[in-house]
Design a protein that fits this description.
The structure is a single chain. By secondary structure, this protein is mainly α. Among the domains are: about 35 residues, no CATH class; about 70 residues. It is built from five helices and no strands.
Length: about 160
C-alpha cells in the first residue's frame, strides 16, 4: 500500500526585482531636498503656526508645485517680485474685465463690418477688405479668449 502524499498548495514567490531603477526613481520623486547654498548649509529656521485649513492649503499648493510646504513658503517670501496689495489686485482684475468687454465690443463691430462688406461686395472692390476683416476678426477673437483665460486665472488666484 502506498501512502498518498499530502496535498500542499505551493504559492509562487513574487519575482525578485533585478533592477533598482524603479525603486530609486520613486525615491528620487519623494526626495525634494533643496541644494545647499554656496555659502554653506542653512543654519537658521523659523517656526510658523498655521491653522488646519491653512496647512491643508499650503500642502495643496506645495503638491501642485512639487515641493515641500517649507520650501514653498521660503520661495514665496524670497521671490524677486513684489506682491500686490488687495486693492491693487482688485483694480487689476477690473482692468482685465474692462479690456475683455472692450475686446468683445471690437469683435462685434468687426463682425458687423465683415457682414456689410460681404453683402455689398461689388466685383473687385471689397474682396480684399473682407479678407483683412476676417483675419483681424480671428486675431481679436483669440485676444478675447486669452483675456478670458487671464480673468479666470486671476479669479482663481
Amino acid at each position: 500500500m502506498t501512502v498518498a502524499e499530502p496535498s500542499v498548495s505551493v504559492v509562487p514567490r513574487s519575482p525578485r526585482r533585478l533592477s533598482l531603477v524603479s525603486r530609486n526613481g520613486a525615491r528620487a520623486k519623494r526626495r525634494r531636498r533643496s541644494a545647499n547654498l554656496p555659502s554653506g548649509p542653512r543654519e537658521l529656521s523659523f517656526l510658523v503656526r498655521v491653522s488646519k485649513e491653512e496647512h491643508a492649503e499650503i500642502n495643496r499648493l506645495a503638491a501642485l508645485a512639487e515641493v515641500t510646504g517649507p520650501r514653498l513658503m521660503r520661495e514665496a517670501v524670497l521671490a524677486p517680485e513684489i506682491p500686490v496689495s488687495e486693492a491693487e489686485f482688485r483694480e487689476l482684475l477690473h482692468m482685465l474685465f474692462r479690456n475683455q468687454s472692450e475686446l468683445q465690443a471690437i469683435v462685434g463691430e468687426l463682425r458687423e463690418l465683415r457682414r456689410i462688406a460681404e453683402a455689398s461686395s461689388a466685383p473687385g472692390g471689397l474682396s480684399e477688405h473682407v479678407e483683412v476683416l476676417a483675419e483681424t476678426l480671428a486675431v481679436a477673437q483669440i485676444l478675447v479668449q486669452r483675456t478670458g483665460d487671464a480673468v479666470e486665472a486671476v479669479r482663481r488666484w
